[in-house]
Design brief:
Elements: E1 11-18, E2 24-31, E3 37-43, E4 50-52, E5 58-60, H1 63-73, H2 81-97, E6 102-104, H3 105-117, H4 121-131, H5 137-156
Parallel strand pairs: 4-6
Antiparallel strand pairs: 1-2, 2-3, 4-5
Helix pairs in contact: 1-2, 1-4, 2-3, 3-4, 4-5
Region (Disordered): 1-21
Family: Belongs to the NrdR family.
Organism: Megasphaera cerevisiae DSM 20462
């Protein structure tokens, strides 16, 4: 590692530990030439995810878009911010575990709905109404019947 002060390549690590969130390693270094200390961080470089929109356009994956949609769907519901952060984390992890560099917005929406179904049914319907763009009452009722059918299956097991 090159010293940011004297530009020497001769540095040594004096301390190494994980950051609080566990996503990086903090290394305290000392330059052998000028004896000054500095800190570096080492983290995994993730391949950028590209989302393919319904229109066919592509954009970089933005976890905040999912979180904002969830916040709107869960407005005035008994769902904590921690639960929503966990949903976003699980969805992003599932996408990255597929090792695909591109994912459709439809796939992301389905993953979010699957997570919401287990947290809050009203939030699920709210999210589905925007995501699936219900055109009429019949499509809305079909989604409600689907949700009620799955609820009955869960209670029977």
């Amino acid at each position: 590692m090159r010293c940011p002060f004297c530009k020497s390549d001769d540095t040594k690590v004096t301390d190494s530990r994980a950051t609080d969130d566990g996503k990086a390693i903090r290394r305290r270094r000392e330059c052998q030439s000028c004896s000054r200390r500095f800190t570096t961080y080492e983290m995994v470089e993730e391949v950028p995810l590209v989302v393919i929109k319904k229109t066919g356009s592509r954009e970089l994956f933005d976890r905040n878009k999912i979180l904002n949609g969830l916040l709107r769907a869960c407005n005035k519901r008994m769902v904590t911010r921690h639960q929503l952060d966990d949903v976003v984390l699980r969805v992003e992890r599932n996408i990255r575990n597929t090792l695909a560099q591109e994912v459709t917005s439809e796939k992301i929406g389905e993953m979010v709905l699957e997570e919401l179904k287990n947290i809050d049914e009203v939030a699920y319907i709210r999210f589905a109404s925007v995501y699936r763009q219900f055109a009429d009452l019949d499509s809305f009722m079909a989604e409600l019947n689907y949700l009620m059918g799955n609820k009955g299956k869960k209670e029977n097991t």
